[in-house]
Every structure is written in C-alpha cells, then in structure tokens.
Amino acid sequence: MLSMTMFILASAATLVNSQFDPTSVPYATREAWCNSQTSACPILCLQLPGASGTPTSNTCSPATLLYYCLCSNNVTPNASEYSQTIPYYTCTETNNQCVLKCNGDSTCQNNCRVKNPCGAQDPKRVNVTTTTAKAATPTASETPVNTLVNGATGSAPRMASVNMSHVYGLCVFVGGFVAGFATLL
C-alpha cells in the first residue's frame, strides 16, 4: 500500500512539474528550494492530526524538483497550501516567467499573477484557540499613541501602534550596533 501511495504521489508531482521546466532555474536555486521543502516537511506534518514532527519520508531532488513528504500517520500534506515549498516556488517562478513574456503589457502581467495564485487561498486553521475579543474603543492611555501614529483612534490605529513598536525596536538595535561599531574605529 505504501509503495502504491508513493507511486501515485510521484506521478502527481510529475504531472504538476510537467508544466514547469526545472532547468529554467539555476541548480543552486533548486538546491535552496529543496532545502526549504525538506525543512518544511516536518512542520507541515505537525499540522496533520495524529502526525508527529518526524516524517516517515522526506526527500527532494534538485535535479527534477520532485519531492516526497510522508508524515508519521502515513498522510502526505498538501504542500501547495504553504509557502517555502516546491509547489510554491515553481508557481511563483512560473508567474515570473509569464510576466517576462508579457513584454511590458501591464494587463498581461497582472493576469499572470491573478489567474495563477500561489500558496494557500483558504488555509485550514488546525490549531486554533478561542480568545475573548477586547473592546474596539481605546482607553484614555491608548488614544495619544494612536493619534501620534496616524491621527486617528480605534482598533486599526492600535494595530498600527503595535506594528510600529517593531520598527522602533529595530531602530534601537541598529543604532546600538552602529554605535558599538563606531567605538571600535
């Protein structure tokens, strides 16, 4: 049964990859894609009920871009629903090649990407927890921050202020790095 499953999956991968010529991508790039695919396989397996993060089989060939990920529960995850996988990379590269063939026609370029979306379109939420939603009305202490960020109040500005904290943190980190480097000179 397992060998039959492997044959079917390899045949399906060949059918999918028959639309994409692996040699159109440099070998080093294909190696990187395969490394990403084999790194993603254990994570994809964790998304399946009853599977551990240790796949039964996890291979990828840079020459052909054929890959195989079989989880401990004998189920193969649908890698096309995720990024950093061979289906995602071949899809985005196919779109890139399509855009190049459009010779600058923006409608054609847009169609290349819109008519061939890559990655999950409606991902399944497996490990979802229920949380209580906070009221959308900001507290008095949140309003000045929101107003400073983008001149508005409410839940959307609060999200902007949270995202800005990452920017400020990065600026402090880079500033500290530059200051430390300057003292070495």
From TrEMBL:
The chain crosses the membrane at residues 167-184. Keywords: Membrane, Signal, Transmembrane, Transmembrane helix. Residues 1-18 form the signal peptide. Residues 19-123 form the DUF7707 domain. It comes from the Eukaryota. InterPro entries: DUF7707. This is DUF7707 domain-containing protein. It comes from Penicillium freii.
